[in-house]
Amino acid sequence: MTPLRDLLETSVERGTVPGAAALVARGDDVEVAEAGEVERESIVRIASITKPITAAAIMILVDDGLVSLDDPIARWLPELASPLVVRTPRARSTTSCLPRTQSPSRTS
């Protein structure tokens, strides 16, 4: 058995899932494993997997030394450099959408 298959088998044995299939690829190395009621060719519903896929992609970049987990978010997503804070749903006045470092008197 491989560590991937061991992981899937453990999840099935604990009752976390009735079955699981996984594919892990890195370069030319590809591993496919299955356990429980799910087989390699099973058709299953997949939902809301964008975040885990993005996280896995970022971790590959971290492994490759291209991204650091300590990087400021603005380095990669400049639009998040100055977050805006809206405290109430009705706070849509001209001052509510200003960056926290600005005040109405400095915006003329």
Give a short account of the largest sheet.
Answer: 2 strands, antiparallel
Number of helices: 3
Shape, principal axes of CA atoms? extended
Average pLDDT reading: 84
Task: Work out the strand percent.
Answer: 5-15%
Q: What string, H for helix and E for strand, traces the elements in order?
A: HEEHH
- The helical percent reads 25-40%
- Spans of at least 5 consecutive residues whose pLDDT stays below 50 are none
The neighbouring-strand order within the major sheet is 1-2
**Multimeric status of the protein:** single chain
> Between the first and last Cα atoms, what is the distance in angstroms?
68 Å
Radius of gyration: 23 Å
Quick structural overview:
The chain is α+β, with helices and mostly antiparallel strands and 108 residues long. The protein has helices at residues 3-13, 50-63, 73-76, and strands at 19-26, 29-36.
Secondary structure: elements and pairs:
Layout: H1 3-13, E1 19-26, E2 29-36, H2 50-63, H3 73-76
Antiparallel strand pairs: 1-2
Q: What do these coordinates show?
A:
The protein is 27% helix and 15% strand. With 108 residues, it is of the alpha+beta class. The chain is extended, with a radius of gyration of 23 Å. The mean pLDDT is 84.
Keywords:
two-stranded antiparallel ribbon, alpha+beta, extended, 3 helices, 108 residues
